[in-house]
Write a structure and sequence with these properties.
Number of domains: 1
CATH topology: Proliferating Cell Nuclear Antigen
Helix content: 10-25%
CATH class: Alpha Beta
Largest sheet: 8 strands, antiparallel
Strand order of the largest sheet: 10-6-2-3-4-14-13-12
CATH architecture: Box
Radius of gyration: 19 Å
Number of helices: 5
């Protein structure tokens, strides 16, 4: 079996895996309309779903990504990176303006079934609707996780868009990239009032 897709998607996804099965692996699967989906979740606090429309995947697999492979896949300003996996052998190729280089790694495939992230995404998309209205509530988010998620999205895009609806997951999307990051709230809370001191200052 073989897989080929944009390497930075694997690097971002590997940042949000868990320590134990079934959360320790990154899902790589064919998209129904062509291309490749790359997804991960760290026990439900953060979910990452990336899409490479030019990627190729012969079948679904779950990859356990080591630190060295993750570092080799990270996005860099000076080159495009892609990964090709054939069985347990992975090759990361970096294509610069005038040069190219490659590095080889061993990769492990997990036999544990990936969590039902696609079903969760389907529920989120149904709730958001095609053009969501104004939220009736807000979400409280872990500040450390929020920083990590924004940094991960910013590694692949110069600007990102943040959307949150009805106290649900905060959705982070990059401009011009096929990547969604979902940060689950700690709790749903009422939308806070603008502080009185700010209102009186701006009056």
């Amino acid at each position: 079996m073989a897989w080929s897709f944009q390497a930075p998607l694997l690097a971002v996804a590997s940042e949000f895996t868990g320590k134990y099965a079934p959360y320790q692996a990154v899902l790589v699967q064919p998209h129904p309309k062509g291309g490749v989906i790359v997804a991960a979740t760290d026990q439900g606090k953060v979910a990452v779903v990336g899409y490479d429309p030019r990627g190729e995947a012969e079948a679904q697999t779950c990859l356990i990504v080591g630190d060295e492979l993750a570092r080799a896949c990270r996005a860099i300003k000076t080159a495009q990176r892609e990964i090709t996996i054939d069985g347990m052998n992975a090759v990361v190729r970096s294509y610069g303006k005038n040069t190219s280089k490659s590095a080889e790694f061993l990769v492990q495939h997990s036999s544990v079934e990936f969590p039902p992230l696609v079903q969760v995404m389907a529920k989120c998309i149904e709730r958001w609707g095609v053009s969501p209205g104004v939220s009736a509530s807000a979400g409280r988010y872990d500040a450390g996780l929020l920083e990590r998620v924004i940094k991960a999205g910013g590694a692949l895009a110069d600007s990102i868009v943040l959307s949150a609806f009805d106290g649900g997951p905060l959705r982070i999307q990059g401009e011009g990239i096929e990547l969604l990051l979902l940060l689950m709230p700690q709790t749903a809370v009422p939308i806070p009032a603008v502080p009185e001191w700010a209102q009186s200052w701006a009056a």
